[in-house]
UniProtKB/TrEMBL annotation:
Name used for this protein in its record: DoxX protein
Domain of life from the UniProt record: Bacteria
Organism ancestry: Bacteria, Bacillati, Cyanobacteriota, Cyanophyceae, Pleurocapsales
Keywords linked to the UniProt accession: Membrane, Transmembrane, Transmembrane helix
Organism, scientific name: Hyella patelloides LEGE 07179
Keyword Transmembrane helix: yes
TM region(s), chain numbering: 35-55
Length: 69
């Protein structure tokens, strides 16, 4: 189950870094916030780190909370 969650969220987070325009559109549409491509890439990088920490099973309180929240 952990591996399937990691694969799902990893694809999602890498997509934020590869196509930051899509994340910008999501933020503009659902959150009424304008973000720059750099912020979108930073969000994707942070999310990727959380996913990889979740995969290794470290910092369970933080990584599980970051994945499931």
């Amino acid at each position: 189950m952990r591996l399937s969650l990691v694969l799902f969220f990893l694809i999602w987070s890498v997509g934020k870094m590869m196509v930051p325009e899509l994340t910008q559109k999501v933020f503009a549409t659902f959150y009424a916030a304008e973000i720059s491509p750099a912020v979108s890439i930073a969000i994707g990088a942070l999310q990727t780190i959380i996913v990889l920490v979740f995969l290794t099973g470290q910092f369970k309180t933080l990584s599980y909370g970051g994945i499931l929240d």
